[in-house]
Amino acid sequence: MVAITAPGSIEQIPLVRYPKANADPPAVIPAIDLLAPGAAAAVADACGSLGFFRATNHGVPAGLADALEAGAMAFFAMTHQEKLDMSGPASPLGYGSKSIGSNGDVGWLEYLLLSVGNGSVVGSSLPPSLRMVLEEYTDAVREVGGRVMELMAEGLGVAADERAVLRRMVVGIDGSEEMVRVNHYPPCSCLLPPGRDCGVTGFGEHTDPQIISVLRSNCTGGLQIMLRDGRWVPVPPDPDSFFVNVGDSLQVLTNGRFRSVKHRVLAPEGMQSRLSVIYFGGPAPSQRIAPLQQVMREGEQSLYREFTWGEYKKAAYKTRLGDHRLGPYELPTVAAAAELAAK
């Protein structure tokens, strides 16, 4: 990795350059119609193999997503001080620019990170029109997440009367920790020497700690995921679809059947900004995170030691983005299996 300094547009900061994704033929990102027969099996297969898929036929009106995109771009066009005055500095909620968290991670972006529990945006003085569309959008995407979690449970073979087991941890529960992150990545092609096979980091590689993440972006690409063999592959943007990430907590809840996906964003190299909106579905801080009995086979042992969401979130805030956050919670059988697989 090579540190570089960005001139101008969003102040001078050190950035990190990564090699671009491999030039091999692009991986096929599973596309799943959420209302189609067989959707549950397809969701389970995608979450087990990649930890990631593209969701279509999701029911969120295109006009709602477009209105949020327009409102967010208008917000990010304001002066730095105006944005801070409206949202406060990110700690962790609020408006942030370049610094991601408090442990030294940086990227070529600015963002809003908001709590959206109980159907409202909490603790922010956003423009009323932006607040209103954010709340309406979050309500719609929350239902997408809930539907996906029910399909996940069905695909795992959970009995019909218990298929809301994952959804109930997030949707409609007092105290569940739902957040929305709005990321804005301005173009930075001026930073790149011609002909170099590298890109400027917009958001560094990481997994999401929550149960589920649901992302939508505009037409500008940059998102990449890591395959199981360690290759990075680009995810073509599709504003008409949502992209679903398996989070660390879901990996534990399924005892490793689903795997959280490592992903990152490279800053745009053309003339257009990238804007993405991510809904994070997290449980209440007291929620016990351990393999669900509904998915465990007779005699199957847990691969992870039990923790609460509050404990895991607190630990995650002390780490760097790229750290293996689940490592301290893996039982010795996991390390032994990984060592055996590497031989």
Automatic annotation (TrEMBL):
A GO molecular-function annotation: oxidoreductase activity
Signal peptide limits: none
Record-linked Pfam families: 2OG-FeII_Oxy, DIOX_N
Ranges for domain Fe2OG dioxygenase: 176-283
Top-level taxon of origin: Eukaryota
Record has Chloroplast as a keyword: no
Cofactor(s) the record lists: L-ascorbate
Keywords: Iron, Metal-binding, Oxidoreductase
PANTHER family linked to this entry: 2-OXOGLUTARATE (2OG) AND FE(II)-DEPENDENT OXYGENASE SUPERFAMILY PROTEIN-RELATED
Family assignment from sequence similarity: Belongs to the iron/ascorbate-dependent oxidoreductase family.
Stated name of the protein: Fe2OG dioxygenase domain-containing protein
Organism the protein comes from: Zizania palustris
